[in-house]
Amino acid sequence: MAKVAINLSTGSIQQEEIIVGIDLGTTNSLVAYIHPDGRHPVAINDQGRGTIVPSVVHFPGGGDTPIVGTDAKEYLLTEPQNTIYSVKRLLGKSYQDLGQHAQELGYKVIDDNSEGLVKIRVGDTFYSPIELSAEILKELRQRAEHALKTPVNKAVITVPAYFNDSQRQATRDAGRLAGLEVLRIVNEPTAAALAYGIGLSPDEEKTVAVYDLGGGTFDVSILRIQQGIFEVLSTNGDTYLGGDDLDRAIINHWTQQHQLAQAVAASGSLQQELRLLAEAAKRYLSQHEDFAANFNDVVLRLTKPEFNDLIRPLVERTITSCRQALADAKLTPADLDAVLLVGGSTRVPLVYDAVSEFFQQPANNSLNPDEVVALGAAIQADILGGNRRDVLLLDVTPLTLGIETLGGLMDPIIPRNSKIPTKAGRQYTTSVDGQVNLKISVYQGERDLVKENRKLAEFDLRGIPAMPAGLPKVDVNFILNADGILKVEAIELRSNTRQAVEIKPQYGLTDEQVEQMLMDSMTHAREDIAARMVIEARTVAEQMLYQVERFVAKNGQHLTPEETTQTHAGVEQLKAALTTQDKDTILKAVDELEELTRPFAERVMNISISQAMAGKKIE
Ligand code: ADP
Ligand code: MG
């Protein structure tokens, strides 16, 4: 029985709100929930269509009403320009981030603004990866609502442990666009561990490796679980290595063996057929010894040993990552209590063997590797829904976060593999006398020069009192929250001037708005700068007038009548200059008044110093 709640003010009965767990995968996505009977996680299988929803969005005829999932996948080869796959790779990325990979996709990625986030063109419409991911999430949400016969408005969504802030934020925004309140973004390996029941009892202490080989990506994470706290000790992987590469190895093998290149190049449907056969062979060989099928007048065969030889180099690459992850975590295989297998491609026996051999223990594959992340997300949803003892989730930041310093150097503040939530800071100062603004540019990445890293945000700490260079003390603090969202805060300690940003790159804005903002900042740049300079000049002038008037009032008796007249004239001239909005007129008057008053200011200074000294005894 589902729990019911009674609204005491209206007397109406409310069904317990369902929070689903979603694995938004590069290749496949799933939605799961906690079954009220027995309170165990279940992947939703709506209308017997299976639990897996291929992460493919197809726009029939290039129109704007998409279909999602298995039906959309059919069009990958016949209508590639209208069929979007692997959109997760584009989430939160600029065209620059994608580099040469942009050309490898079958659809059109727009590169007109290489600094901005990528767009995908379908027909005459431009889509952001956020919108396309939202289509997948909408499909999952609809399936859940249909199967559970209740509205679904809340979700936990998983992301790879290596996802950066913009990618996490993009995932959140995709959820919002799909009408889901995203309660938490959870790392996929953390979800997998939860699904295996690790970390659910308070006195448990475990260290585990999560090996996730999916359709197009590979990652391995080392987690430490202690008192219900999940901590990612390290992550490693390859974002361009997965089951698709195994398929490709088979395709290449058959193509060479039977000289299929020409025939396949000439026919899209043959190409499609060959691809499907390769995947079928791979899956078949996970359980059998040989595969055979007819293809365009030839019989394609593959034995398991042949297949293993084809894919061994690929599997070896994943083991190299495992070695690195273990080294980063400063552990040896003997330190691991369990090795968990995640992702459809871990069904390949050679993968199982290689992983078990490297970690010196049998890997755990007792849960369905397709579903394990979604199941764990459902458990996390249940925890957040208050149905379980609160389990704290700690993750790790996979890339260094820092700011730009003189000469374009990257100054790391939070090093990669730091546990989150975390806070770190450093003190800076100005490089120029009288500097009133300090620009803080935030970058993410491992290179020494910021131009090689990814820029996340930039802001000015304004209003630092003009002081000689090196005197202001500016604390820059980075605060990374449990969702991996970064807040950067700068404080000038003498004046307590502060400025903070939450790092949310362009998300939430339409392209038109982003473009408009860019245009505005450019078209108004001159007047903005001019206005600021006038204000700065006025500030200087007003300070000068204040000081001079105070000086005259205090030291008038030391001035000759001529000096007094000249000073008055200079003051009047500056006051007149202040009635204009011309910074040059103002600054010229400031300069003249300063020239005029400097000699007697110095003289008076000497008098007061000698008086002070006369009053004191110097030993
Ligand atoms: P992702 O997390 O990237 O969305 P999945 O974990 O769903 O991906 O994995 C999809 C991959 O798993 C595909 O390449 C698919 O061919 C592969 N796969 C699924 N079942 C098997 C199997 N029985 N044997 C080998 N590979 C499989
Ligand atoms: Mg996955």
UniProtKB/TrEMBL annotation:
<protein>
    <submittedName>
        <fullName>Chaperone protein HscA</fullName>
    </submittedName>
</protein>
<dbReference type="InterPro" id="IPR029048">
    <property type="entry name" value="HSP70_C_sf"/>
</dbReference>
<dbReference type="InterPro" id="IPR018181">
    <property type="entry name" value="Heat_shock_70_CS"/>
</dbReference>
<dbReference type="InterPro" id="IPR013126">
    <property type="entry name" value="Hsp_70_fam"/>
</dbReference>
<dbReference type="Pfam" id="PF00012">
    <property type="entry name" value="HSP70"/>
</dbReference>
<keyword id="KW-0547">Nucleotide-binding</keyword>
<dbReference type="InterPro" id="IPR029047">
    <property type="entry name" value="HSP70_peptide-bd_sf"/>
</dbReference>
<comment type="similarity">
    <text>Belongs to the heat shock protein 70 family.</text>
</comment>
<dbReference type="InterPro" id="IPR043129">
    <property type="entry name" value="ATPase_NBD"/>
</dbReference>
<keyword id="KW-0067">ATP-binding</keyword>
